[in-house]
Write a structure and sequence with these properties.
With 55 residues, the chain is α+β, with helices and mostly antiparallel strands. It has a single domain (4-54), classed as Alpha-Beta Plaits, CATH 3.30.70.20. The protein has two helices and four strands, in the order βαββαβ. The protein is globular. The termini are close together.
Length: 55
């Protein structure tokens, strides 16, 4: 199961994109989107300054 983005909290800052070790996160329409490459490592959860990502 992939990490989940709460789009109502996501600001599209991109902090999560740079920390993802498998490049599973992109910014689309101003929001983070996590694809099926996600390995549930949690790096993005800790990197998100607005706590918009959860496992």
């Amino acid at each position: 199961m992939a990490a989940i983005v709460d789009s109502s909290k996501c600001t599209g800052c991109g902090a999560c994109v740079g920390v993802c070790p498998v490049e599973a996160i992109t910014i689309e329409n101003g929001k983070a989107v996590i694809n099926d490459l996600c390995i549930d490592c949690g790096a993005c959860v800790g990197a998100c300054p607005v706590e918009a990502i959860s496992l």
